[in-house]
Design goal:
Number of strands: 0
Number of domains: 1
Helix content: over 70%
Structural class: mainly alpha
Order of helices and strands: HHHHHH
CATH superfamily: Membrane associated eicosanoid/glutathione metabolism-like domain
Strand content: under 5%
CATH architecture: Up-down Bundle
Length: about 140
């Protein structure tokens, strides 16, 4: 079970890479089309078209809450506490990030996106509490 927690981590990494590739493609297409000049976006992303900014924001989001997820998964492995519950929570978090990215990069309904983000944040909080409780139980 210890290595099972690696799978959701790898899926989260691939999600980040896929969004990054899509962002690079969208930005490249805009620059090649000459609809926007490099000087317009060199300092600030605000001049990109909305769909490009949305994708860029989605990419940036992959380096926020997921960082805590990565740390928790690595810690769980390091202390041999990546059990079924830890792995299940990791998968729930990654599924929430996939859904969040889908919403963000398509219809971008803020209510739906906020709900899914909140679920992911709650799961990370549960991961942290679960790990802490397990660590404290070993100390007793």
């Amino acid at each position: 079970m210890q290595t099972a927690i690696i799978y959701p981590v790898v899926v989260q990494i691939f999600l980040t890479l896929l969004i990054g590739i899509r962002m690079a493609s969208l930005r490249g297409n805009e620059l090649r089309s000459s609809r926007i000049s490099p000087s317009e976006i060199a300092v600030d992303n605000a001049n990109w078209p909305d769909d490009v900014r949305k994708c860029g924001n989605s990419y940036s989001n992959q380096f926020e809450m997921p960082v805590l997820f990565y740390v928790l998964c690595i810690l769980a492995m390091l202390v041999n506490m990546a059990d079924f519950i830890a792995v299940a929570l990791a998968w729930i978090f990654v599924i929430s990030r996939i859904v969040h990215a889908f919403i963000h990069n398509t219809h971008n309904n803020l209510t739906q996106r906020g709900l899914v983000f909140s679920i992911g944040a709650a799961v990370v909080a549960l991961q942290a509490m679960y790990l802490l409780i397990r660590l404290l139980a070993v100390q007793i």
